[in-house]
Each structure stands twice: as structure tokens, then as C-alpha cells.
Automatic annotation (TrEMBL):
Pfam families according to UniProt: Glyoxalase
Organism whose genome encodes this protein: Pedobacter lithocola
Sorted UniProt keywords: Signal
Signal peptide: 1-22
Name of the protein described by the UniProt record: VOC family protein
Annotated ranges, domain VOC: 31-152
InterPro entries cross-referenced by the UniProt entry: Glyas_Bleomycin-R_OHBP_Dase, Glyas_Fos-R_dOase_dom, VOC_core
């Protein structure tokens, strides 16, 4: 009887179902899938993001003329969605950030496209140098959404 009890206790202790259940306690962290930006003119916004950031456009499943999807590599996707009624005033604290190899080279792109940019405090044409050595600039897309570009590695 003791052997049977020991066998039953052993089976319960080493049960694969319990091991599977225990593993669910350590779930993988969530990952970003996409960011959706609501825009007034899809064609204008699509051209802006494609030309300024050189983002690869990817197929979108709706085919309704109201969506443009871009790949952000491992970071996920950027979805532009037609339908915003008017441009709104957006706070700079709420922004999308893209990293580039060189902020100085990117600033030249902004200048060539006549896109105004500023540093964090708001000085037009200036670049912020953060305490960690990262350079950054801020500017708005065609709907007034704030964008940051930095050279963080």
C-alpha cells in the first residue's frame, strides 16, 4: 500500500500538466504590433511618411482606400487611417519617435523638404543634445502629430 501511495504522490508531483501550468506564470512580455495614426488626407500623409522616413509600404487587408500600412521592422507597423475631420493641436509630449544613424543628415533632409523642426524646448531650427549624448529634433506631420527623430543606438 505504501508503494502505491508513493507512486501516486510521485505521479502527481511530476505531472506534465502541472509543469505546463507552472510555465504560464512566466508569460512572455507583450510586444508592439502597430501604431495607428488618424489622418485627414491619406494620400498626403502616405507621401509624407514614405518620403521623410523612407518607410516600406506593406499590403493592408482592407483595400478600401482608407488605410496605408508601413513596416517598422521588428518594432511592428505604422497604420495611417483616413477619417480625421480636422487637424487638431497635439501636445509634444505625445509623439512618435524614429531613430536614424545621423540626426545631422536627417536635419538636412528636413531642410531640403522645407519641414520646420525644433529642439525639445521649442527653439526653431535647433537640435537637442540630451544628457546621455543622444541628439534629437521634433517636428509635425501633415496633421500636426508630433514626431521625434533621434540618433539613439
Amino acid at each position: 500500500m505504501k508503494i502505491i501511495t508513493l507512486l501516486i504522490v510521485s505521479l502527481i508531483a511530476f505531472n506534465p500538466i502541472q509543469k505546463c501550468m507552472a510555465q504560464t506564470d512566466k508569460e512572455s512580455p507583450s510586444v508592439l504590433n502597430h501604431i495607428a495614426v488618424y489622418v485627414t488626407d491619406l494620400n498626403v500623409a502616405t507621401d509624407f511618411y514614405k518620403s521623410v522616413f523612407n518607410l516600406p509600404q506593406i499590403p493592408e487587408p482592407f483595400h478600401d482606400g482608407k488605410h496605408t500600412w508601413f513596416s517598422l521592422g521588428n518594432a511592428g507597423q505604422l497604420h495611417l487611417i483616413q477619417g480625421a475631420k480636422t487637424s487638431e493641436v497635439h501636445d509634444k509630449n505625445e509623439h512618435l519617435c524614429f531613430s536614424v544613424p545621423s540626426v545631422d543628415a536627417f536635419v538636412n533632409t528636413l531642410k531640403a523638404k522645407n519641414i520646420k523642426f525644433e529642439d525639445w524646448p521649442g527653439k526653431e531650427g535647433a537640435v537637442t543634445l540630451r544628457v546621455d549624448g543622444v541628439k534629437q529634433v521634433y517636428f509635425k506631420d501633415t496633421d500636426g502629430h508630433w514626431l521625434e527623430v533621434n540618433d539613439a543606438k
